Amino acid sequence: MQWLTIRKWFFLLFAGCAGLLAYAMWVQEVDLLEPCPLCILQRVVFMLIGGFALIAAIHNPAALGRLLYTLLISLTALAGIGIAGRHVWLQHLPADKVPDCGPGLEYMLDVFPLAEALGMIFKGSGSCAEVSWQFIGLTMPEWTLIAYLSIFLGSWWMWQRARSTA
Fold first, then answer.
1. pLDDT digits (tens, 9 = 90+) for 94-147
2. CATH number at residue 161
């Protein structure tokens, strides 16, 4: 796939993240599906990955810069895998094990210290365990997990290509 340069990969990655975020906003605003705190964190991770990819595409760095950008994107995708994996796990809990509904993300970040708020977010809530959207049998967190895995594997592949040209 010589037509897919690292710069094009970064632009495609940015466009993909922008498309996923646009769809998430569509589902929220048009379908009136309110995101839970873990959904919001997953959006933030897509914003970070897309931002890093856009900066990398515009910067078009030499070999060392390509390695650093792909490493940064890969690490951010790993964080997304962790968040989405936790969300999928919460959705597959038995009904009696689902955590009680908690406060919203904005309230938690305003009232509690950051470390405590993040602990509460990752503990999950009833809203995170609720399945209110599916496409061909997979929930939105399962699709985001697939997206993060794809981004990680694609970045790893690009990292290998960047290393071979360094």
1. 777 776 666 777 777 787 888 887 777 777 776 777 788 878 999 999 999 999
2. 1.20.1550.10
Residue 42's nearest CA partner among 141, 152, 114 is 141
- Residue 64 in domain: yes
Q: What span, in angstroms and rounded, lies between the C-alpha atoms of 106 and 52?
A: 25
- pTM for this prediction: 0.86
